[in-house]
């Protein structure tokens, strides 16, 4: 393909310097196609436009998604976790509830499997020059299931509700320090501005499906979601039975192409094993979230397809940096060097993960600096570090972890590896609820342990990992990591919104965290969805949502 | 008999009151708080505090308990914290479900266990006895989730004869409900068969060796009559105690079976309420089980006195 300079100039004419900088990076090879598309979508550039730029730059069009021959009108049956308590998009943060309200609700934009932001109820978005104000243009002609048109007032009310501490909003932990009640302003019926507390280069992700509570509800919403189920989505509620299941039917007033299935049926389960049995018995078509270790029987079963989505979900290990043996960074590094990440990925996670490099920067983030060397197992060096730290004769510590997913097995592997370097690690595995406790220091084994493992869900951008887990004032800083240089770098990363600057800051953070090693990010595991052969068009997200708009029987 | 019943009723009331105190105050030892359980470990602390205040769980414990027991005594089970709906809407259907499953399991396992025990005792130290005793013991030792999964794999996944979920469709009749309860009842039958058969066997052996049995045989009564009227009647006394003592387990202790078969019984309701520190739900559920247990024990005592006239003559002591 040859470059069409005239077309490229035409396309760049109305763009901002940040957007042009991204195109420069793509044209001269510093930014690959994947990162170009992801970051372009973050800046509010549409996928067709990005495709045109790619063509003009001589790289060919953006890849199109192959459409299977899907028969409309099917009933798709899904096994999913039971919602824990009442379903309320403002309060709920459990996977069961998230899956339910996402079936009828929609977001301003959707974070897709490749971290590409796609327009949904917003058609476009733009930052101001310093990234403190983001302006979203809303789609016209969108109707709530109750009949009213979705307009700016609904978006303002939804976001205000979520940012208001008086509402016990689950999204408050994401918005805190970024967006306050009153910061969302209506410009006209179809334009909304978000005035942020400070510059934020990744803000659109925080009002996307990535922040699962942000489905747009009517301005009049009063907490009665289980009665109204009022959203704008392509399915509307048919029936909901607590702890049993729910069914949804096609919304014929949907603003976009109508959903292919006539009906979707969700069956609630308390555990993964019965879900696997139900799929094997032919009583459901899909298991929305399949843990690799528990679902190993399905991974190689030819009767089922496994949809594997790269995610940034991880089982981070923290080490207390202020007291005990882990005060010394050399001890923390030694622990990190004892881990065999290849075995974790291939053995523990059955190949459904990628190795981490002891920072939240997973390789799928466009801003991750790929030039930072990957940490690998080096027992000899680990022993030397322990010797230099004065632990030549060995040391003892306790690893506290929740009974969840593959964490107990992961803890046992850590125990056996650190034994080789002279660290006698005792395991304290406990119920997940007991582990998190009150989730405040002094009342939480998670935040009080000298060494612990916590399970972290996927995030489309690393902001929450960088701030809440690792900054000096982070509420989830179980490692008690206090580093002013890091705090400044994290702030700079969050404020930057051109890819080169983000990557530069990311590189500095990655190197600093490798040096300090307050936490071990050993692997980032894929989100797995098991689907019966012949069922196609299923679109899960790494957040645990499931889009069945285009699903059917092939 | 009436004074016996009155005394038992009074004991039961005191027991249930103590139960409410134990559940409420020991439950406070559980880690976490209601707001945190609803919003999750990663919710903002401010949001948790606001929710706890809205729910009233930041008040002193005695005030909370007093408010709850006051409403309960007026017939109001209260509102569930985590579901934000009346507790009665959950507890009563769950009790119905649990009773149905327990009834199906009882109807199968009690006659089967007693018959097994009788056959084993009549064939003491023969291969039949060994097969029943060892088989029953082995079955009881298999955890419910293991036997449950095996049953599901055989009858649900491979043969596809039975539904693997116990959640029957809306409007299902009694026979359909029974069909859906066959698989979940199987692990319970495995667990209980051994106990009941062993108790019956032991009682039978003792009764067969007694003077009154010898007298009955020497009187020339037919063997069948000796077994039915003299041996079995006495041999069943300890078995009744075992069966009654399993009521609490069958009504509220079937968490594993309920989870495996997606059954909406009291076991999973209690587990989720304890996890979420949903005390109105927890208290009501535990009280219901306590009440069921008290009634079952009372029925066992009445059966005892019917089978053993000496108890009646002693005034129910």
Oligomerization state: heterodimer
Overall domain count of chain A = 3
* H-E order of chain B: HHHHHHHHHHHHHHH
Based on secondary structure, the structural category of chain A is alpha+beta
- Whole-number average pLDDT of chain B? 87
For the largest sheet of chain A, list the strands in their spatial order.
Answer: 8-9-10-1-11-20-12
Average pLDDT reading of chain A = 92
Give the biggest beta sheet of chain B.
none
Class by SSE composition of chain B: mainly alpha
Q: So what's the overall shape of chain A? A: globular
Portion of residues within helices of chain A:
25-40%
Unreliable spans of chain A are: 62-66
What is the number of helical segments of chain A per DSSP (H or I, 4+ residues)? 20
Please estimate the helix content of chain B.
over 70%
Write a structural description.
The complex is a heterodimer of chains A (554) and B (317). Chain A has 554 residues and is α+β, with helices and mostly antiparallel strands. The longest helix of chain A is centred in the last third of the chain and has 18 residues, at 499-516. Chain A starts with a helix and ends with a strand. In chain B, helix 5 runs antiparallel to helix 6 (127-141), helix 6 (127-141) packs across helix 8 (174-208) and helix 9 (211-218) runs antiparallel to helix 10 (223-245). The longest helix of chain B has 35 residues, at 88-122. Chain B has helices at residues 2-27, 34-39, 45-55, 61-73, 88-122, 127-141, 144-158, 174-208, 211-218, 223-245, 247-252, 255-260, 266-275, 279-307, 309-313. Chain B folds into 2 domains: 32-76, no CATH class; 94-313, MetI-like fold (Orthogonal Bundle), CATH 1.10.3720.10. Chain B is mainly alpha-helical. The chains are: A alpha+beta (554), B mainly alpha (317). The interface between A and B is large, with 44 and 47 residues. Chain B: This is ABC-type dipeptide/oligopeptide/nickel transport system, permease component. Chain B: It holds the Pfam family BPD_transp_1. Chain B: Belongs to the binding-protein-dependent transport system permease family. Chain B: It is found in: Cell membrane.
